[in-house]
Structure formats: C-alpha cells, structure tokens
Amino acid sequence: MPVLTFLEAISDALRYEMKRDESVFMLGEDIAEYGGAFKITKGFLEEFGRSRVLNTPISETAILGAAIGAALNGMRPVAEMQFMDFVTNGFNQLVNVASTTAYRWGMGVPMVVRGPAGGGVGGGPFHSRNSEAWFAHTPGLKVVYPAFPADAKGLLISSIRDNNPVVYYEHKGLYRKIREEVPEGEYIVPLGKARIVREGRDASVITYGSMVHESLAAAEDLEKEGVSVEVVDIRTLIPFDEETVLASVRKTNRVLIAHEATLTGGFGGEIAARIADRAFEYLDAPVRRVASFDSPTPFAPTMEKEVLPDRTKILFELRNLLAY
Amino acid sequence: MKTRTTSAKGKPLRHGSGKKASSDIPAVQPMSALGDDDRKKLFLHMLQAREFDMAMLRLYRQGRAFGGVYSQIGNEATAVGSAYAMRMSDALFPMHRDIGGHFVRGQSLEALMLNHTARVGSMMRGTDGTGHYADASKKIYGNVSHLGAMIPVAAGYVLSSKMRGEDTVAMTYIGDGGSQVGDFHEAMNFAAVQKLPLVLIVENNQYAYSTPNSEEFACTRLSDRAIGYGCFGETIDGTDVELVYETCRRAVERARAGEGPSIIEAVTMRMRGHAEHDDARYVPKGLVDEWEKRDPIALYQESLLQRGVMTEQEIADLRKQLSEEMNKAIDDAMALPYPPAEEGKKHVFVD
Ligand SMILES: Cc1ncc(C[n+]2csc(CCOP(=O)(O)OP(=O)(O)O)c2C)c(N)n1
Ligand SMILES: [Mg+2]
Fold first, then answer.
1. Mean pLDDT throughout B307-313?
2. pTM of the shown model
3. Interchain proximity B147–A303, CB inside 8 Å
4. Which of A86, A295, A305 sits opposite B348 (nearest CB)?
5. Which residues, in sequence order, are CB contacts of A206 under 8 Å at separation 6+?
6. Does CATH place domain B3-23+56-106+133-337 in 3.40.50.970?
C-alpha cells in the first residue's frame, strides 16, 4: 500500500471518483492551472479537462448555488472553498437551499463542499476557523471531519456518493504532517461510523480532526504512568455514531471531549448532552471538555497557542478527570 | 449614469489578461490642481509603500515574517493617488495590498511594522496582522480577509455621516477578483439608491491569485457596472499617480456634492505572485516585462525630474533616508517579543 500524506489521500479520492463517475466534477477558485491554493487538484486540469475542473470567479454564493443546481440536474459536484472560512459568503445556499431540499422536495442534492479549515498555522482570524458546528446545527447537511489519510480518502468517496449535501472539513495543519498507508483504488469508509483509534480502560477521549492527534499524544504520555486512555475519533459529526461513543463511556466511565473549534456552542456540548442523557449512571466523573477559548483565532503565535487546545491542555484535563 | 473610459490621452484602455495593457498609455500627465509640494508628497508616499513592500519581502525570505505577504508593487500610484484625493475627515477603507494609502493618512512606519509582524504593542495587540487594523484617529478602517466585505461597511459609515449632516466621504477598494463577490453588488446598489458619498476604487491588476480577468468577468470594463447601478463609472491608467489623483478628486467632489457613488477602475499589473509563496508561473512570459516599463515610481520620478520638481540628488537622498528608516523600523520591531500569550484571551467584547 502506498504511503500518502493527508493531502495526497484527498487528491487520490477525488481523482478516483472523477475517473469512475463522469457526473463528478469540481468547481472552485484557482483549482485549474494552479491546482488549488494547496495543490489538491494539481494535474487534474490536464487529466480531466476544463469543463470538469472549473475555475470560478471569486463568488462563493455562485459556487455553492451552482453546485446545488448541478446536483439537482444529475451531477455530483465537489465544490472547493479556497479556505473553509469563505463558506460564509455562500452560507445562504447551503443552509437554506441545499439543506432543506430533501425535506421539502424529496430530492437529493448530491454535492460535497470541501476545503481547508483549522488553526495553528498563523492564519489569523479569517484563515483558521472551524465552523463545523454551524452546519451540524443545520438539519439536512452531513458534516465530516477526518483525522487520518486513509479515512480522508474513504470518507470523501462516501461523501461524493452520498445523495445529500456533505460539508467536508480538511484540517490544513494535517495536510503535509500526517502520512500513512492508504489503500489504492476503491476504498470506502461509511459516514456515521466512529473509530476507536486507541483502546483504553481508564478514560475516553471523544474527539475528531486535529485533536485526534493531540489526544493520542496525551494518551501516550499517560501510558508511561500506567494509565490507559481510549481515544474515539467520531470522524463524522452528522450522522453521529452515538453507539460507539456510549459504548466507550460505559467501558471507561470517564470522558473528555476535545475539539479545536471554540467551546461555546461547539459540537462537544452536543456529545456531552447525549452522554448525560444516555449514560449518566455509568459516569464516575463529570464530562469534561477541551476546546478553543471563545475568541477569534489570533494571529500572533504566542496568543494563538494560548487559545487553541493541544496535547498539554488535554493531558491536564485528563489528569483532572482521572483524579476526580 | 455616466460611464467613461479614458486613458490620459482619452483613448480607450485595453486590458485583460495576456494582452498588452500599457503600450498606448502615455507618460504621467501633469495635473494642474497639484502644487509641487503635493507632487513631492505623492512621490514620497509611493516610495514609502515600495520600501515597505520590499522590506516585507526580505523578512519573508529570511523566514522572519509569517502569514501571507501581499505586496502592492506596481500599484502604488493607485493607492497613493486615490487616498491623496481625500480630506483627513474622510474615511479610508483599504484592501489587502493598499499599503500606500496608510502612509498618505500619516500612519507611522513603526506602527505598521509592529502590526505586520504582530509584535507587542501593535495596533491590533497581535490579534490580527497586515492592513486589517483600524485607527480611528486617522480614519483608517482595514479589511477582513473576506473580499468585498468592507464595501457595505463603508457605505454604512457614510450613511451615518449623511444622516448627521456631515460631509464625510468614504473611499474603499476592491480587486478585479474581489469585484465578483455579492457584497460588491449589494453595497453599490444600496449606495447608489441612497446617493451615498462613496468612492469605490477597483484595482484591476489583471489577476486574482492565478485567475486572469477573462475567467473573472465577461464585461469589458469593471466600471461598466456603474451603468447598472446608476452611478458614475470610469476606467483609468492606474500607474499614473496624478491621473489617479485627479480622477479621484473629482469623484470625491461629486460625492461631497451629493451626486452619489463612483466606481473608478484603475488598471495596473500585479508585479509579483499573489503572495510571496506564489511564483506566478501562470502569468504569460513578457506580460510582466511589458508592465515593468510602466513602473509607477520610475515613471513619476522621470516626470518630476523633467519638470524640475525634484533633483537627482534630492531623490537619492530621500531614498537613502527611507531605507535607513526602514532598517531601523525592522530592527526595532524584531527586537520586540510577540505579545504575551494571555492577550489572546482578552477583549472579545468591549466594556
Ligand atoms: C470571499 C473570499 N473568497 C476567497 C478569498 C481568497 N482570496 C484571497 S485574495 C484572492 C484573490 C484576490 O484577487 P483580487 O481581488 O483581484 O485582488 P489582488 O489580490 O489581485 O489585488 C482570493 C481568491 C477571499 N479572501 N475572500
Ligand atoms: Mg487582482
């Protein structure tokens, strides 16, 4: 199996689906000759031609609206946001048009919106945002946030084949940092299935995206002290795999939820509520959360590090949890 | 509902990617509204902008700058000439490359350098960088990354001035690419309906990141949109600082007189990549060389020398002085730490 970076795994999934299914096409800013701001679609123009690798004007409303229209008319568009932050400019199309179409018209909108998100790279307030909770809060949209290259590929293929609009987050800090073996060709990871990325007995960390890696690092630190931490990567927020999460909580009886998005109104609150609701009697300690401080993501590296969660903060909260 | 397209000669400008955009544009045209002191200032501010951009490029190459480094090299005449047409009581809403306008409004080099390098004491406390800051004392309100977002904000700013009977004008900026966001349309329509004193400068530097004009819009000139809004529109050579000044002065005058907004398209070339990480290989060979001949600073220097406004010696001394000031500003900024980490958790709200 080839070893691919996170970024290469996404390209691989896109290329595979473009080859397999003529109805799949891409649209976005600077994705053709330039291959996209992060070079995800490098070489796609040459391979698939201009009509399937469509450079658009800087018009996110048009990109997302056109994707919806194309999806209603037999295509499977994959729309790239140059940075996921810019999805705000097309917000209306996603939250009002795409998300309600199945419910109102009984029609599928098989489209994917994907792009780089997340902080820790000096991007400042407008190139760092994790906006997944907005869309998780919008019934009718599926929301995916992978942490590993193989999952990124398998989940993206599933997202493209799904008949509903999917918002697919790629943490830009993982693009070139994380690499692993990725199956060639057909490889599917179903939406709505969490994965236990590390088994443990003493506490569970429920997490996704970049915080999966920070949680694994914290779990390793604790292993040296004889503490066994389970790490559950939910992989998709919507649909949410409640069963896997609850099973882990019932096993370890202590749970920490970690995400890079800001705390208040974050998806962690939803997970905590479900656990309180369905596994209260299994808990030996209150559910704890680690998330970004409730501020925009600051530009200066010292300040950014302060507000973003990381291994150290997860470790600190895990110790509190274990000591409870 | 007037749309005009003029070069200084009155010939229509040709533009669009891959086409020669400059050969029919004559050298800088002297504008009578300007005195020699004004001319010296225009030249000074363009040099300050260039010096600043060059310094940021150096810092980037040395790994001492982070975030995107966007320069306005080749576009100084547009930023400086336009901002110079405003009063200090007017409000400037610049876009990501418009470093020149900050100098026109008297922003200090030290403040800008601290801000761009996110050092302690910077105007935004390290929360954000580049030209994103606001300085109410100079009536500068920076942009957010989301292109075009500040056009409606600028409109609202002068709406309130108008409500209070003040004669403030707002000037704001957008690129050839950014002109395609919905905010542009909604804001210009609103401003035209309300006859707001707003001047929108469209900096058409041929490219939006890697995307040429031809893939961004299908109209001939971006100023043509003025017809649709029912406001004034004009396309000019953006490398001629006095022409930019004069065109904007008239637009500001119209705005102040209650005649509503203007869209001024200034045609230039982005002489470097989108930001410094981008080698701009997608730009046809020769296009940059062609525009190199229209370097706004070289053109203006030539013109000032010819007209005897400045001497070779004066210019050499000025350049030397600016370069020394820049080196000091860099050293001073680099000697400072980043803001303390706790700053990140403060002031999410004002009191
Ligand atoms: C709404 C939005 N979409 C995408 C981007 C990403 N982006 C930043 S600058 C840029 C190109 C801008 O081109 P133009 O408006 O022509 O200005 P220039 O950089 O050429 O001066 C793009 C696509 C953005 N900042 N905002
Ligand atoms: Mg441009």
1. 97
2. 0.94
3. no
4. A295
5. A232, A234, A245, A248, A255, A256, A257, A258, A268, A271
6. yes
